[in-house]
Design brief:
6 strands; 5 helices; two-stranded antiparallel ribbon; four-stranded mixed beta sheet; 18% strand
Amino acid sequence: MRGVRRVVLLCVPALWALVSCGIPATGVVEAGGPAHGLVPMLRVYLVENGSLVAVPRRPADAVDAESAVMNLLEGPTETERAKRLTTLLPPLTAAPTSAPTPLASVPPTPGPSGGSVAEAAASAAVSVNARNGVVSIHLRYVSEELSDLATAQLICTAAEAQRTTDTGTGTGPGAEAVTVKVTNARGRSVEGSDERCPEG
């Protein structure tokens, strides 16, 4: 009996210390779902007062050059427009017609492979490939030459995403500059790197 009393007396100070430290004496407290891996941030380059600005966005999927370019071509969000951010890139449109319709307004009708018609049209209008250290962007829906600043938007956005993709392979941050080649519908190409891209 004396041994039981001694155990009880030893437990009371320990419980008092827990309560006084702010640890609840009740059961498990729910605090949200389980932790998952970190979602990388995507940076697209928009224009503010004639200069490039790196703008962070939270991507729906993994970050790569193609998803970054498609994200950029969607244009500024309402929040970004409210901050007077804009783009000099022509809006991504569906297949050429007499009156092009922005893809954002095309209803998401299922396509033959399960994707939407809008997604299929976007894939046909723009292709992005990364090979041998060069990211190639082919804008099939753009026939005119892009301004230097519009081209820089594409180069910096694609290069930034490619660096994120290459992290851990020796070609990520701190490695050599990423080269990006932008080609329009007429075959006119401009090549550049991310050496002069502003930091976010």
